[in-house]
Amino acid sequence: MTILPRAVRRLALLLPIALLASQVTHAQDPAPPTPQYTTPEGGTPWIYEGSDVPRDEEWTFGKLPNGVRYAVRKNGVPPGQVSIRVRIDAGSLYEEESELGYAHLLEHLLFRESQYLGQAAAIPTWQRLGATFGSDTNAETSPTHTAYKLDLPNVDPAKLAESMKLLSGMVRAPVLSDANVKAEVPIVLAEKRERGGPQQRAADKSRETLFAGQRLATRIPIGTEATLNAATGKSVSAFYQRWYRPENTVIVVVGDLDPAQLAAEVERWFGDWKGKGAATPAPDFGDPTAPAGADPENPVGEVAAIVEPGLPRSFSYAIMRPWRPVQDTIVYNEGLLRDSLAQALINRRLEARARAGGSYLYAQVQQDDVSRSTDATFVAFAPLTGDWEGALADVRAVIADALAKPPSTEEIDRELAEFEAAFASSVEQRRVMAGARLADDIVNAVDIREAVAAPETVLTVFNSMKQTLTPELLLEHTRKLFSGAVIRAAYVTPDAGEASDADLRAALAAPVEAAADARIEAQAISFADLPPVGEPGTIARQGALGVLDIERVDFANGVRAILWANDAEPGRVSVKVRFGAGWRAIGPEDSVYAALGQLALVGAGVGELGQEELDRISTGRRMGFDFDITDGNFTFFAQTRRQDLADQLYLFAAKLQQPRWDVAPVQRALAAAKLSYNAYGANPAGIINRDLEYLLRDNDPRFRTPDPAALDAATPEGFRKVWEPLLRQGPVEVLVFGDFDRDEGIAALTRTFGAIAPREPAPEAVANTTFGFPEPGETVVQYHKGDANQAAAVIAWPSGAGVDGLPESRQLEILTQVFNNRLFDAMRERAGSSYAPVVNSSWPTDVNSGGRISAFAQLRPQDVPAFFEAADVIARDLAATPPGEDELKRVTEPLLQYINRVSTGNLFWLYQLEGSTQDPKRIGLLRSLLNDLTETTPERMQLLAQKYFGGKPGWRLAVIPEGQQLATKRVATPSEAGR
To answer: Which Pfam families match (predicted)?
Structure first.
């Protein structure tokens, strides 16, 4: 059963469906039968065969006579939605040498054309049904399976039947013609190109080394150019017929309908499916084996020193064992829990060493069952310098200590408390578990050949394991994790000559002395022992906000709070703190400290608590401490629970009132920033991440990514000098939404945020800061050091900002999605030159400037002009001609369903109402949100397009390979483009 998240598909290729094509054709539909093939009363459901794990009674499992297995379940989160998963037990490991990439290519082709879906109409079909392309309609191809996913909102029986019909046609009868294969291969190759570059080369070489001799070494879902270009309708059909069969198929349907009805639709559309020919057994994936003559005590096998200039150093080695199917019993799961505890203990020790200024930036051990190919324990770390041998020795020394003697009772208790809190939280939140997640859990369980369990069962198994746990037993499990048939390693370095394969092999085989100081011996810390934030505050004003039962509380010190106590999400409380002036308050000369603040401000500590103490004081608790900078505010955020809310509020308030300034987190952040900087130039996406925000802000130095020179000049003292006054800056707004007691929440706020000293207002010059937008002109060209066939392009127009324009911003979101659909069609469907262009609208509401509409694509260098041309033509066409009613419906229906779904959660209301204590207009504008986002007219869209696009050329950025020149191409007029 699935106990903890396990990286079972480390090499999976997760992606949006490349091409959904559909036109519903009319045919005689079979009548829905009464389900006949569910598990008989008293029988064992197929997923629990060979297991003594108690059955989750909310699931109904069945198996049809043709071999199709299914699982259905009633679930109303979110209301009205049905989540459908169709899993085929075939991924890239099932491919022959001439078929590399076929499993993933088939994933694309099933959406291009099938029995009920004609050419080029599937995206509109799903959109009209309210499903958002890319999130509600998705798929994944991994080494071991292909899974098709549909989250369908606002479902009724007719919509369910229609969707199951369309999916059945895709899975059972795709049109695998030469023409469709020829049309789809360029799109897959575009996807492959975008994922290429130094990182991919390093990953490929690492995979070939770690899984040498196994299918996984040479088979990744994306395939090769040679095999994809050689694909034909006949060759792809052969792969399809071999693996797309009823007995290889599992269908999961979870949703807000009667489970009997869900099962009936599975049987209706898949019950008469028959495979062609005899079934083919799954191929042997191979086992990891040591080379002949290897030392049984230290069986070092294949290693690779991989040189990729521009990439940061990273070292991975694995202790590998053959993977074998298991009997998924309670005893087996108790063993998994002990394994997880052993890893958690070591990881905490490794992290403590890194925090204290060790030789590595990070280090982690993790046991994975990888693609049913190996049961391995992976060790990964990032050396801080070229002394990788010293970092490897330090990491191995910590592990050696864990192998030498049992952990202390204190260490064990600390990890047990963390596990118990996580499992108890799952029990609390069971009734609000999303249907999509439940459906994915079944798919994942089938993939790793294990059962599923209710949260209560997981907690029960954990408690039974805890009763028998001893330090000696945990030591036994630790030793098993680090024993295996072979050890393999890969080291990625930017410097040639830094390491050879022989060097790696010798370092791994060298004896290591256990680190005597690796263990963390520390006393527990209690919030009760900490000093108060200050004298409890007084409430100056209190009353209803005017929306639902949400309440506003103002304190005498100027802090304002918004609270909504409700039980919509049991066991979950969201807390957000907004303070200060955000990016407006960062001085142009202090951009390096803004970047470091995002990495190190929380770790620098709170009052008497450093980072290690913060970890210890939150042991067994559900607490968080996320920090972010927006244009107009700094923010803290956490999701906690009722019993931890008061202490969560204490941490946030104490950070403002009693900040600590530990040096080590800042030094570690500096090291991380230096190591990662050179990697930005390795591909177009890296350049975009490094420079786009800076360029779109008209070269505002606050948004410049710090380069090595700026990082070298930064100091912990400078960090404190910048951030200490910013933490004193107001105003302060606290939002608390979720499952808590209202009176207890107000009392906790009074003791914490009500007790902080009055905040200092931002200087007038800061408050009046505006954010610029670059003047359009010649295309800005940046250069990357990656592959010669990779490029990226951005085109952007300035838009608006501020609360007053919220209704217009929502209408602009509709226009942006229309633009997105058109650009997607132009660049991907027609040319295959770009995999997934994206258009976004950004409309800041905490400031009155800085809004923009931007379009982005990764593509070939020679296709950059075509992207700019397509975007310009679409922009001008939208300004000249109103979009059609059907085109708008394809956008507004998914937006309507999206709002209906997300508005059932507390975060929706929190995000909509944050900032309303400073600008109450937000409250009134909330009432028009649904209409603003879902109701419009073609004429209104045209007026918006004229306002933001008409007669205005977009600002352009092209990122191309070093040594190349940007091609030029005259931009066609709308009439020339044949609009």
So the answer is: Peptidase_M16, Peptidase_M16_C
> What confidence tens digit (pLDDT) does each residue in 136-190 have?
788 999 999 999 999 999 999 999 999 999 999 999 999 999 999 999 999 999 9
Residues contacting 959, CB < 8 A, separation 6+: 684, 687, 688, 781, 782, 783, 784, 791, 792, 793
Residues facing 659 on adjacent strands: 606
Backbone angles phi, psi at 378, to 5 degrees: -95, 140
Q: Which CATH superfamily is domain 300-509 in?
A: Metalloenzyme, LuxS/M16 peptidase-like (3.30.830.10)
Number of H helices, E strands in the chain: 31, 24
Nearest Cα to Cα of residue 708 among 674, 672, 671, 669: 674
Facing residues of 252 across strands?
71, 85
Residue of 86, 216, 80, 240 whose CA lies nearest to 144: 216
Kindly write down the DSSP assignment for every residue of 741-789, as one continuous string.
-HHHHHHHHHHTGGGSPPPBPPPHHHHT-----PPP-SPEEEEESS-TT
Residue 11 and residue 282: Cα distance in Å, rounded? 19
- Can you tell me the distance from the alpha carbon of 440 to that of 446, in angstroms, rounded to the nearest whole number? 10
Q: What is the rounded CA–CA span in Å between residue 612 and residue 355?
A: 9
In this structure, which CATH number among 1.20.1250.20, 3.30.830.10, 3.30.450.20, 3.90.1150.10 belongs to the domain 780-961? 3.30.830.10
Structure tokens at 326: 């298991």
Beta-carbon count within 10 A of 110 CB: 30
Q: How far is CA 378 from the centre of its chain?
A: 22
Return the pLDDT at 156. 93
CA–CA separation, 793 vs 813, rounded Å?
A: 21
How crowded is residue 186: how many other Cβ atoms within 10 Å of its Cβ? 16
Cβ(948)–Cβ(842) below 8 Å:
no
Q: How many CB atoms lie within 10 A of CB 953?
A: 16
Task: Give the H or E element holding residue 487.
Answer: strand 486-493
Break the chain into its structural domains and give their ranges. Answer: 13-270, 300-509, 527-764, 780-961
User: Strand, coil or helix: what is 929?
Assistant: helix
Domains 13-270 and 780-961 share a fold: yes
pLDDT (0 to 100) of residue 127: 81
Sheet containing 13-15: give its strands across: 13-15, 137-141, 146-152, 82-88, 249-255, 69-74, 60-63
Tell me the longest C-alpha to C-alpha distance in the chain.
79
Q: Beta-carbon neighbour count of residue 948 at 10 Å?
A: 23
| Sheet of 573-579, strand order | 539-544, 551-555, 560-565, 732-738, 573-579, 634-640, 626-629
- Which residue shows structure tokens 């912990």? 716
**Which residues is 865 bridged to in the sheet?**
none
pTM above 0.70, yes or no: yes
Architecture of domain 13-270: 2-Layer Sandwich (3.30)
CA–CA dist 501, 505 (Å, integer): 6
CA–CA gap between residue 832 and residue 188 (Å, rounded): 8
Could you give the 3-state DSSP secondary structure of residue 69? strand
Q: What is the spatial distance between Cα 188 and Cα 574, in angstroms, rounded to a whole number?
A: 40
DSSP track, 567-599: -SSTT-EEEEEEES-GGGGS-GGGHHHHHHHHH
310: phi > 0 → left, psi -120 to 50 → alpha, else beta; which? left
CATH architecture under which domain 527-764 falls: 2-Layer Sandwich (3.30)
Give the pairing type, strands 249-255 and 82-88.
antiparallel
In a 3-state reduction of DSSP, which class is residue 837?
coil
Work out whether strand 634-640 and strand 791-798 pair parallel, antiparallel, or are unpaired. Answer: unpaired
Q: How far, in Å, CA of 768 to CA of 839, rounded?
A: 29
Residue 895, pLDDT > 70, answer yes
